[in-house]
Amino acid sequence: MVINSKTSLQEVLEIIKKEGKTVGLVPTMGALHDGHLSLINFAYSYCDTVVVSIFVNPTQFNNASDLEKYPRNVNNDAGFLKQHNSKTIIFTPDVSDIYNDKVEAESFDFGSYVDFMEGEFRVGHFDGVGSVLKRLFDIVKPDKAFFGEKDFQQLMVVKKLVKITDQDVEIIGCPTSRNEFGLAQSSRNFRLTDSELKVAELIYKALSKAKKMFDNNSIKEIENEIVNMFKDEPAFELEYFSIVKENDLIPTKIKEPKQNYRAFIAAFLGEVRLIDNMALNY
Ligand code: PAF
């Protein structure tokens, strides 16, 4: 079922909630793929009803051409979901449903979660993400909302968002869905040619290498190795490789005992910017 307006969605959900059913939300920007499907399946393992929102959120793009080139095809998305799970509710709000007449990001205090990596290279991005999700949570009022660990920094930010805004929704992180060669599923992969898709596997190889090296090498040694792997592949331009402590997402040069560490990568393949991350010691 595809619902285009906020009021129609709320009417449908009111009936569902009155029946005592739980509602899960999977927020997306469309161009649905197997990664989204795995989030939706995850959501069904917790909730009776699943709403998938499709909204390309203008306030989270800090690059106009990225926003313009973002793949959009709601009919394809609806067909794809119908094939896999026809009872899913697809919510496709328009800009005024979300922002009324003021299409602007609110500013949030996400602390150190947004000081580095995506927060540093896409300034304002997480305020945009926070703004749209705050509004989507207000409209849908889901019991739980589901986010992929591929955007791990976003997942941490969203957990903080619901604390700051005191919204009554549980945020569930779901494992990254990958193709058979390890490449993380992403709507941006649709913009890559077949040969670029092969090259893109380097990101997973680099993260796996970092994980393998983690116990017996210094952070500096790991960083040098990964930077060199990318230097050997001229099609790629590495934007950052960072090893961070999971609890604050601040890049670190030393390893402390009893801490969880993650490695994060952002790299350009032509005009397409890809990101991924991996737990290193847990
Ligand atoms: O991860 C995404 O696709 C977007 O950032 C989200 C969570 C749908 C917010 O627009």
Automatic annotation (TrEMBL):
Pfam families to which the protein is assigned, alphabetical: Pantoate_ligase
Keywords for the protein's UniProt record, in alphabetical order: ATP-binding, Cytoplasm, Ligase, Nucleotide-binding, Pantothenate biosynthesis
Subcellular localization: Cytoplasm
Residues holding (R)-pantoate: 60, 154
Coiled coil, from the record: none
Active site: 36
InterPro entries per the UniProt record, alphabetical: Pantoate_ligase, Pantoate_ligase_C, Rossmann-like_a/b/a_fold
Domain of life: Bacteria
PANTHER family, per the entry: CYTIDYLATE KINASE/PANTOATE-BETA-ALANINE LIGASE, PANTOATE--BETA-ALANINE LIGASE
Stated family: Belongs to the pantothenate synthetase family.
Primary role: Catalyzes the condensation of pantoate with beta-alanine in an ATP-dependent reaction via a pantoyl-adenylate intermediate.
Note: The reaction proceeds by a bi uni uni bi ping pong mechanism.
Protein name: Pantothenate synthetase
